[in-house]
Amino acid sequence: MHTLSKGGMVAGIRIWAGGLLLALAVGGALYAGAARTVNDDAEQRFDNLTYGAQHSLATRVKSYSDLLRGLEALFRTSEQLTRRQFHDYVAGLDIVRQFPAIESVNYAVALTQAQRAAYVADVRRDTGLASRGYPAFTIRPAGERPEYTVLTYLEPDSLLAERMGVDIGANPLVAQALAQARDSGEVSASGQVIMIKGPPAHVGLGMRLPVYRNGMPQGSVAERRAAYQGSVGIGFGVAQLVHSALEHSALEPLHLTLYSAADPLPADGVWRVTPQDRLLFNDDGDLAAAPPQPGSDAAYFDEVLPVAYQGGLWKAHFRVRKAELYSPFDRYFPWLALAVGVAGTLLVYGYIFTLYRSRRNAVEQRTLLDTVLDSVDAYVYMKDADLRYRYVNARTAKILGRSAEQLIGRQDGELMLGDAAAAAQLTERQVFDSGAKFVGEERFVDAQGQVHHLWSVKVPLGLPGPVTGLIGLSTDVTELHRLKEEADAASQAKSDFLSNMSHEIRTPMNSIIGMAHLALKSVADARQRDYLQKIFHSGQHLLGLINDILDFSKIEAGKLELEVLDFRLDTLLANIASQLGDAAAVKGLALQFDIAAELPQRWRGDPLRLEQVLLNLTSNAIKFSDNGSIIVRVRQSEERGSHAMLRFEVQDRGIGMKQEEVAQLFRSFHQADPSTTRKYGGSGLGLVISKQLVELMDGKVGVYSQPGQGSTFWFTARLEKSTQAGDERIAEVEPEVLGVIRGASILLVEDNVFSQQVGCELLEDAGATVCVACNGREALELLARQRYDCVLMDVQMPEMDGFEATRRIRADPKLSGLLVIAMTANAGSEDRARCLAAGMDEFVTKPIAPNLLFHLLAKWLRLRGGIGRAHAGDSLAAVPKAPPSAALLELRDTAILDLATLALTFSNDAVKMRKYTQLFLDTARDGIAEMEQAMALQDLGRLADLGHRSKSSALAVGAHAFASLCMSIERLRLGGDLQQARALLAALEPALAQVAEQISLEFVASDAP
């Protein structure tokens, strides 16, 4: 692993080194390009500057020639221009400001030797500017010559003394230029360079323009020579001309050297400075030092341009340091280009490299993921919003009988049989619609027809936005399913065995206990009485053991469900005291109860199972204690909304246990010390049953114990807070409850004769007036003729059931506000919801405890304003409806006769209990006869209705085994055959005979002295 890591690091360094070299190359190229661009821009600016300077110089030179032409025109305005006129004209030109380079303006007269004397005399007498004239005037240099060109008029006056009377034609070069100008009639530049000492020293040049006599022809050279009278001229300093031409332009960084060209334009068209060229101007002011030659310094831009000078040429050598033409941005631009090139290339290289690595890693990860998913013992797939496959692993492709490539883009309908595809798409569409994960079992038939049971998890993709697809993972649990079916069959066989064993054992045990009880009342012999008492108590012990085994079996099979009923804590603990108080007193133990003062008394839960756990823990505490007291505590440990967690503790001062013994508790068929079984008895099932019951109530169980110090067993249970108002006990019917019912007019709709008689007597004992209808149709007829305060409506009846009758009551405007309470032997949540949906106000299950019925009637009659207040159109929305119960119908026991249920139904009134058990036997026999008639007609629907009717009567008296058979007959409507119906019907007669025997045994025993 280390070698691989090191090799990968070296490869990465090489890749990035290559990227760095590439970045430097690109950056260098960009640097060179940027530098070239900056240099080209600067050179362009240099060219613009030089051409501008060239134009400025040419324009300035032309302006001077234009001045000459103006002077020449002045002479043409007059036959004889006076000195005064010339002076005034020049003064009007404002030479100092407009033409600062001009050092002199003059007029030279052309003379012959014959005209010399007269000319000199005229000048000496000229008082136009000087009142005394110019008496000392003479022509210089002295000597006679054929022709003269004498400076006559001069401006400024300061030049008169130095230059007035100078024969400029005496210089051959000047004479040649004058003759050329005379013959051409054009301005001529002086070829003579004059070094003016200054200060400062500088080069001076002159230009002259011929002046001809007015009125004389000038068409030919001869005519121009004949008309020639002189010339006007100017002298100027080259340095001042250059400065005046360039002083207002942006030429500060520009260096200029001006030459008088000795040669014309070379053949190659490129101007160069030659040794023959005469230096006219150097911007550093030093005319003696040799100026830099063009191209001699790479740090400079330089160029030689011509400047036209009146028939001649000047060479203007422009130079500027390159750096001076660079802007601040130009100085940094190449380096910026280098940095951007390097950084940009590295970024692009890194991005491409990262994409490449990411793509490579993605391919590797996909390959790894495919390898892993193909190795997983599960079917993995992904689908899009159209439920088309986007990915499948190898196992999925195999079970579908196609390759992975053939599955991509296809739907289940193209790959599976219709039912399987529809079922799969239904669950997957639910995932898309709800956005919730699906977890559950699915059934799939492959191409070979083999059935697979799959445990599937389907997770939506794209949340929290719209669902864009799903990922599914299905595990083949066919083998587990087969094992589960085998285990369920074994568990069912065990449960059937235990049930049959219980039935077979309970029947003789009830006989043994009953006979022993009867014999104890009639035997006086002490020894015989001792034998009978041992038989009686041993039978009770054995019956308790059988009950524990049955409870344990139910819990293990998952068939034990809790009820949700209203109960009181004090009543619950009073039951404990009444059942175990004597046992504690016999051992000299004090049984104490401690309920927290702030704890409410009313709760909703399963009081029977709570009582069972408390009885087990408390009886154990009594069993293993010889002195002191047993304390039962109740506290609230947690509260959440409408629920609370209650903590129950049972503390004793008994033998206690070691920690290793405590660790072995709550295990099936186990006691802390095996020797305790011999000393104290017990099956070892009590604690494990208690633990499982507590866990069904979302609680926990535990124990604190020390040897010789006693033990504290505790458990918690989550209970629902009771919504019933008040604190009255249901165990006893309060006078105010009966006061509300007394005088009420109640319609009892019931098809069972036994239930009719029981209901009538209970309600009439409470002071109500009762009218009976055998089915819904009779009820509607009675309601049409008479007003009632309440209708107690059975659900399943012939001709018209309770649901249809209630719907018609609600549809009738005169009866829509009538109180309707459903009575049914079916206690499932679906049955309750169906009753409430039909419009019934309340729902109670059979067998109905009288006190519960009285409290319900009192509550609803109070809500309706008392008896006689109900009227048509009462709003049902104003009537609170109890939430549907989640408890399903569960028989309390399969005992032949449950005296507790019988006592509850008839308020423990022995006379009524005896009366109605006999009435039950009569109606049950009639019911069996009717069932046999229906069986003869093979009418399973009628048979099921009769089973429902007999079931209600059996539950009312506690004949649960008989009721269980009736319930099985009732369920034939959901699916059954004649053979099953015959078997059930054949079992009814023996079951009823057992009930009759038990009734005879119980009431004979109670009548015995």
Note the topology.
Blueprint: H1 2-76, H2 83-92, H3 95-98, E1 102-112, H4 116-125, E2 147-155, H5 160-163, H6 172-184, E3 188-189, E4 194-196, E5 202-212, H7 221-227, E6 228-237, H8 238-246, E7 255-260, E8 278-282, E9 300-309, E10 312-321, H9 328-375, E11 379-384, E12 389-392, H10 394-400, H11 404-407, H12 418-434, E13 438-445, E14 451-461, E15 469-476, H13 478-522, H14 526-557, E16 565-568, H15 569-586, E17 590-595, E18 602-605, H16 607-623, E19 629-640, E20 643-651, H17 659-662, H18 674-680, H19 686-696, E21 701-706, E22 710-721, H20 735-741, E23 745-749, H21 753-765, E24 769-773, H22 776-785, E25 790-794, H23 802-811, E26 819-824, H24 829-838, E27 842-845, H25 850-863, H26 899-905, H27 910-936, H28 940-957, H29 960-970, H30 978-1007
Parallel strand pairs: 17-19, 23-24, 23-25, 25-26, 26-27
Antiparallel strand pairs: 1-2, 1-6, 3-5, 4-5, 5-6, 7-8, 7-10, 9-10, 11-12, 11-15, 13-14, 14-15, 16-18, 18-22, 19-20, 20-22, 21-22
